[in-house]
Write a structure and sequence with these properties.
Elements (H helix, E strand, L loop, with lengths): L1 H7 L6 E5 L35 H11 L13 E5 L2 H7 L3 H34 L5 H32 L1 E5 L13 E5 L1
Antiparallel strand pairs: 1-4, 2-3
Helix pairs in contact: 4-5
């Protein structure tokens, strides 16, 4: 109870707001947080209140929007894209129940597909090993096995490509982020 009273009393620490030279409140155009302890930058050609963003907010917006340009002035940001490593992906995974449900479905499909490939491969060997079978029966069975193997490899490649696309991290290229884009401001204390 004492902590609640302390929050509303005059003894609470003062809030610091950031102002520009024209005495206008500086806020991030993405999160609108005036109290975030991160430098504001102007990474694009926008001016006024739309010019200022936190780099972390902009990077998160670029990841979510799958865009590399400003939606207001169409300036193309200099970004670096990379795929999450498996360890980073595991640390960020929050819904383990859904993950295990999807993983069990994928695992079941792979096991069934591999079992089908083994059966087809054994049948192909049987057709070629037994002299009483025709050459064309073995060839057709080999073609079926090859076709199923090709489909499985294409499926795995598509799965890997989609996984990489869904787990891309976009960050601003710090070399191209101008030192002039970091805004200098004076923090005024307001009670």
């Amino acid at each position: 109870m004492a902590k609640i009273i302390e929050l509303f009393s005059d003894k609470s620490p003062p809030i610091q707001y950031k102002y520009d030279m024209n005495e206008q409140l500086i806020t991030c155009r993405i999160c609108y947080d005036e109290q975030k302890f991160e430098d504001l930058v102007s990474p694009c050609k926008c001016i006024g209140s739309y010019a200022k963003v936190h780099p972390s907010c902009l990077e998160q917006w670029l990841c979510v929007s799958k865009s590399t340009s400003c939606d207001i002035c169409n300036y193309t940001f200099q970004t670096v894209e990379r795929t999450l490593t498996f360890n980073e992906w595991i640390r960020k995974k929050r819904d383990w129940k859904l993950f295990f449900k999807k993983a069990s479905i994928v695992f079941t499909i792979i096991v069934l597909w591999c079992s089908l490939l083994i059966v087809c491969g054994m049948k192909t060997y049987y057709y070629f090993a037994d002299a009483s079978n025709s050459y064309w029966s073995g060839t057709i069975m080999f073609m079926i096995t090859f076709f199923l193997t090709t489909i499985m490899w294409f499926w795995i490649i598509i799965f890997i490509v989609l996984w990489r696309r869904m787990n891309v991290v976009v960050s601003l290229d710090k070399k191209h982020l101008d030192e002039n884009s970091i805004l200098n401001y004076d923090a005024d204390v307001i009670v």
